[in-house]
Amino acid sequence: MTLVHRVLDLSKLAQIRKGLCALAVMTKAPRAGKVKTRLTPPLTPEEAAALNICFLRDTTAAIAGAVNDERARGIAVYAPVGAEEEYEGLLPDEFILLPQRGDAFGERLICATEDLLSVGFESVCLIDSDSPTVPQRAFSEAAKILSEKEDAVVLGPSDDGGYYLIGLKKLHRSLFQDIDWSTERVLEQTIARAKEIALDVHLLPVWYDVDDRATLRRLCREFFADNGSASGGYAAPVTREYLSKLLKREGRDRIWPNE
Hints:
Layout: E1 21-28, H1 45-66, E2 72-79, E3 96-99, H2 105-118, E4 123-127, H3 136-148, E5 153-157, E6 163-168, H4 186-196, E7 201-203, H5 213-224, H6 237-250, H7 252-255
Parallel strand pairs: 1-2, 1-4, 2-3, 5-7
Antiparallel strand pairs: 4-6, 5-6
Helix pairs in contact: 1-3, 1-6
């Protein structure tokens, strides 16, 4: 089978046109029971996997809309190796695939940054797939900042103390080492590491991840109770449509009980 999405070959250098920023989504193949497990319950494993697909479609669509100035390119950094066909129809056609390497989370971020720089990208933004309403302007701004700086780190803070985006022009391993991942200290520790190596820090708008029951309720509230998406965020139409149909089919009590 011929894949729609090109897979980067790490044995070849200079595969990418000069001057581009990689806007790279970190993603796992959307398999029931393997993704969005903190959303089960209230969702079933199958519903959580379907919602993961919606998040990925909306995030990559937002990225695709942000790169129309030819400054950046959309990438999906995926796991596991061998899951390439599972991304058919989930990503914009112009997206490129890159397999994840490494075991621990910090190691995977290091490897993704290293690999994307090695194939010719001038800068790299690693983006989570848990924040479907991050505005397009955040991605554009990150690429713009990195195009103008000799060396810097761009961070998109999440209001739980982590970040939804980290952007770099050079691989600074210390930004990913000895970090208390999945805690409220991630952003603070990353900024501290940057200061230790005298690296300029640029902050994007604060946003939020959807990774548990409380943040799923928040997403539903902003879609269906606040008459719009998250405070000027991306409309996330695929996610919104899926949740609308799910609420209609299942009723509100299980998914989004009255608060």
